Each structure stands twice: as C-alpha cells, then as structure tokens.
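Ticket #4471: structure export looks truncated?
Reporter: QA, pipeline team
Priority: medium

Steps to reproduce: submit the single chain below to the structure queue and open the exported record.
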Amino acid sequence: MDQPVLPFLPAEARSIGPSAGLLEGPEGGVVFVFGLATFTYAAGDGIGRRLAAVQLVATKAASATEVASAFRISTVTLWRWKQDFTTDGVAGLVPTRTGPRGPSKLTDQVSARIVELDAAGASLRKIAMQTGVSTATVRVALGRVTARGAQSEEPVEPTAGAAGQREADTVLDSEQDTAEDVGESDGGNDVWGDAEPDDRPEDRVVDEGGELVVLAAPVARTAERAAARAGDLDEAPVVITEGAHLPLVGLLLGLPALEATGLLAVAQETFPPMRKGFYGLRVTLLTGVFMALLREPRAEGATRIRPVDLGRLLGLDRAPEVKTLRRKLAELAGHGRGAHLQGALGRHHCQARPDAVGFLYLDGHVRVYTGTRQLPKTHIARMRIAGPATEETWVGDSDGDPVMVITAAPSKSLAAELARLLPDLRALIGPERRCTLVFDRGGYSPEVFATIIAAGFDVLTYFKGTWVKSPTPAFTMVEHTGPDGTSQTYELAQRAITLDVPAQAATPGGEAQEARPASELTLRLIVRRSPDGHQTPILTNRTDLSAGKVAYRMAARWRQENYFKYAREHFALDALDSYADQQDDLDRLVPNPAKARVRVQVAAARANLATAHAEVADAIDAAVVAAGRAKNHGKAEVDPAPGISLSAATTELTAAKATSAATATHLPLREVRPGSRLLETERKLLTHAIRMSAYNTESALARLLRPHYSRGDDEARALLREAFTLPGDLEIIGRTLHVRIDPASAPRRSKALAALCAELTDTRTHYPGTDLTLAYSVKGHPVAT
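Actual output as written to the record:
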C-alpha cells in the first residue's frame, strides 16, 4: 500500500500502549482508543479522570502499567481505584472526607512557636512534638507546602542544599493529619493529578516519626538527563534522597577517610574537564570506590548492585551502569595522565601521613597474563615459573598501605628500577626529609646502594651472596616495642661489612657516570637468628637505629606482601580492566636466544674435552701397567684413540668459543619477537588509583576502629565489610546530613561502630559536591554531639 497509514493519536497525546492515548489540557482530557475519542472529562473532574483510567484497564485496552504511566499515577493507586470501582461502582471513585473536622490546630500562637523553633535549628520532628501537631502541619506553617486543596504561590525548584532539598521532596505525610490539623476539606478534586507516582501521599510509607519515607525513591532527574542528551549539562548536581532503611547507607562511613586520601581533589587537578554528560568525574570515582568497598571492584560488578540503591548514595536517581563506567574510565585513560595521578596521590599521601613515610617499602609485583597475546616473559616468584606477565613497582608506607605504583619496563630488575625511581621518590617526600628505602634481595646491588646513599636516602635490605656466619656467642636477645605497642624479641648479632662497588655506578637519573676507580662501601650487617639456628643477614647504612628497630623495620616488609595477597582477593589487583594492547618497543635490546644455545654448545665441548683428557690419562696408565710386565721388557704402546679424541675435543671447544664470541648477547626485539605486545597501562593505573584509595580508606577506618573493638587487629576489616552493607537513614537537618546506620549483627559490633561514628562526626567532613556536613550514628546508641 503506497498511501501512509494515518496516525491514531494527535501529536500532543501521550501514548497508552499500542492502542490508546491520552490528551490533557486546560479544559480537561480525552482518551482515544484506536483513534476514536472514547472517554472525556472536564478540568477538575477527578471522578471522570479516575473512571477513564479504570475503564481502560477493565476493557483491556491497555495494561495497568501503561495506564498508570500515562495518567502519571502509581500502579498501586490505579489498583485501589479499580477495587473501589468494582465494589461500589462510580460512587466508589468519589473522594471521601476522612477524619474529624474540628477547628484548626494551626493558630497564630502555634505558628509563631513553630517559626521560633525552626529558627533555632530544631528538626521538623522535634518541632511537631513540642507544638503538638504533625510534621505536615509544621511544613504548612513554615510555608514549605500549602494546605490541602490550596495552591502554592511559587513552584519549588530542586536544589542540592538541605532546605531546598526538603522543599523539593516534601509532600504531606498523610491526608488525615493535614485534614485534622489545618481543618481544610478536599473539595472533591484530585489535587495530586499530575504529581509523580512516588510523590502521592497514598502511596508513601512513612517512618514511625512521620517524617522519613521508608525506601524513598530518588528524585526523578528527567530534566537533567534530557539536558545531558542535548549536550547542555556538565554534570548532574547532587540531590540527596532522604529516607529510612535505605540500602548500603553504611558505605557513607568511608567518605571522611576517602577525603583524607585526596582522590577526588587530586583527580580534579590532574584531569581536564570531562565531556558534558549526566555522570561526571565525581560520580565515576565515587562509584569505583563504593564498588571496591563492596568487593565488586570491576565495572562488571555494577550488574550485581541495584543502580537505585547506589544512586541514592551518589546524590542521583541511579548509579552508572557497566557500559557507562567503561566509557568514562576509557575517557579518563585517554588523557594519558595515569602516572601523573599516581605521583600526585603519592605526594598527597606523604603530606597527609608524614609519620608513615619515614620508611618506604619498594617491591616488584608481577601480574600474570593467561591470554593469547605475545607478552614478554618474566619470573613469577609465587608460582616459581617464568611466564607472560606485566611487572609493576609498588611503593608502600611503614603501615603497608600503598603510596603509588609505577609500571616497570619489561625485563627491568628491581635494582634498576630503584635507581630510576629515586627522583620520583624525592619528589614524593620533599627535598630535605630523611627517608629509608626498604626492599628485598631483588634490589641487591652495591653500586645501586652507593647511588641511593648519594641521592640522600638510606638503605635497608637483605645481604645477598657468600658471607661468614656469626658465631653463637655473638648473639644477644633484644626486645623492641613497635609503634603499635606490640613487643618483639629478636636474637641479634651485628658487625661491619665492606662491599666492593664497581667502577661505574648509576646516577639518580639512571645514566652512567664517568669511569672511576672501583671503591668500597662499608655498611652495617645485623644478623637475626631464628630458633632453628638459621641466620638472616640484614644490611643498612643507618647507624642511629638500634639493632632491634632495624630487625623490626625489615620484618615489616611482609606487610607489603600481605597487601598484595589481600588486594588480589578483595580488590582485583591482577584483573584485566582493559583488553587493549599496544606494540612493544621493537628497538629495545633483549637476550639473544642463539646466545643461550651456543653457551650450551661451549659447555658441552668443555665436558667432551674433560672426558677426552680423562681417557688419555687412562690410556697412559694402562700403558705403564703393560710396560711393567716381564714379557714386555719395560716397553708398551699408548692407545692412540684417546689422543685423537682429545685433539677433536680441543678443536670442537675452540670452534664453539669462536661461535659464542661471534654471537651477540642481545638483539633488538624486532629480530627476536617481532610480534611482541604490551598490555595497555593507562586504564590499569587509573583503576589502581581508585582501588588503592578504597584500600587506604578501609585502613584508616580500621585504625580508628581498633581501640573500640576487641580483636580489632584481626577482625576490624571484617567488621567494616559488614558495615559497608548495612542499611540506614538519611536526613538533612539544617546544614547537616545525618547518616543513621542500622545495628550490626552483634551488639559488640554495633557498639564499636557507634564509637567509630563519633570519631567520624568529629572530622566535620562535607558530602562531596555540597556544603552538607556529615554526622554519623548507629540506631539505638548515643549520638555524638
């Protein structure tokens, strides 16, 4: 058919499924079914409007969900209308006046008292209790909502502030309370005709106090989303959803500690403005941290968290989903500022916690790769094999918390990385601060030790190589008390040791100095003996530290190993956050595989030559024995075969050595593995920063929690994992956002969380993006004042 089909509905009508539509205007409304005007009602005819909605469902012209959406009511309201119509017919749709109709409680004296209490900063609930009226009446007296049946003089715009948020989200708590207190009748009109479904008083469930809505739905952000689609919105503003028993409110416990990590502020300074859209930098980073604290650190974890539940905590109607998170992270990674972000976070960490960076722990970490790309192979210590992997160098503080991470060049040793990172480490801690670098045997190199000391750092590491063990009488028992108050007993001996430094040493910039004579470096050797007699040698140039403190600080290196293990299990340390790869540097020199083969040939030739020498010696010995026999008269011939073999073995060894000398030890990568690839690092550095901040947030909360929780050293993190999943209430009073957490699984846990809430409240932290001060408490426990 060439002629186009005529439309069923006017252009201004709202569609109700595939068959019907609704057109409303100042004069009333018309319902169309298959293009025919089927139901009409005049303006203000609430009964006719309800009847039209019910009839559409009753005749199955549209589903209940479609009708409720078009009439802008909830499905619960539509169900109630249908029940009333089924029971009493059209009469059941007539609104009834409920409750007693005595004189209004809102007298001039009561109104004045309400205004006075509000000016003093009292909450709506307290004002209602002191004046003997409902919270709805208090709102009417304060001009935050009009009385039933009256019209508001000015529309209320949603804002991020406490007062504006209250005005934007406030509706009457119950029709009965308003009718009793204000003494106004309904007047027979459906004054809620065009309200959003969740804003209808008949559909809302309120808390016992009559103020907070249980599982309150977030404010619809339709206008902002439309502006974002049009490219007119930089980032959606924060609108806090007040309500009771909201899921995951416990995550907000992490905001004060997260602010101490500096992630949001540092990222704001590091990255240029993001592309216009509904979700901005704040939401992207907060979502990543919240998901990590919930043990869903990867973007795919967003499928296991309800977007609305996380959206309330972000000040939005819903949190970004998987594809949005991936797109935002890709946008940030595209700026190539991952290393700058890590460095800025490290500097902020050193400024925020100067007491924890007197000792910096450096260690290499290998991220194993199991895909099909040709990645360079490296030794994987924990698996004791060599395989495809990416190497990283981590810097941690004295508590084991990560400070920053640097992607290491392929095949670079920890010793080479130490020399390369010295300028970065100096930038972290400042030009004058004294700092001791602690690392394991992977960084052992006397020339690197000399370079580190020349750069103004101190060294603390294990000795590597041949050494003379200390005699038993040299050991003494030493007791040391750590900063956390725990005491350790060590069996220690100490002496000086001299190391030979090669003729050339690396400078802090990683370049070779001019040739100079070999020198010696005298260091302090502290030997720790275990109960089974094993001796562990420790090297340092620090002469001002006691032997016990040196042993304690060296043993604390395992805290960094513990972080790697914990982060692999809980924060997806080794996960592939991006499957992108890039071409390896084809000009870099790599070991020549042929060199290994010719070395094997040289070793085999040497073994053959040794065998030939042994055979010649055996032949000579046999000839001597034969000459000593009487019948030979002192004469015997030496078997010539071993001599011939010796000559051949000598020639073979000479040829093998010549081949080895002519074979280069290293070749450009393009001649060895031209298809070698490297994994993309920018996205990983960004996700590392987010998860490091989440871990440091958890660490800071654990330190605050330990004094208030028995076995806090062992169970603080387990309690925090539970606390982050607890529901709670959100309420704005004045300029304060009150976060009331539901009790934990045991009274002692709730008591510990209440003490933690008191300490967090004292920080006077603002919710990100607002001027609302956070105040924390646990329900049923005293509130900090």
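Status: closed, not a bug. The export was complete when the record was re-opened. Leaving a note from the reviewer for reference: The first strand starts at residue 14 and ends at 16.
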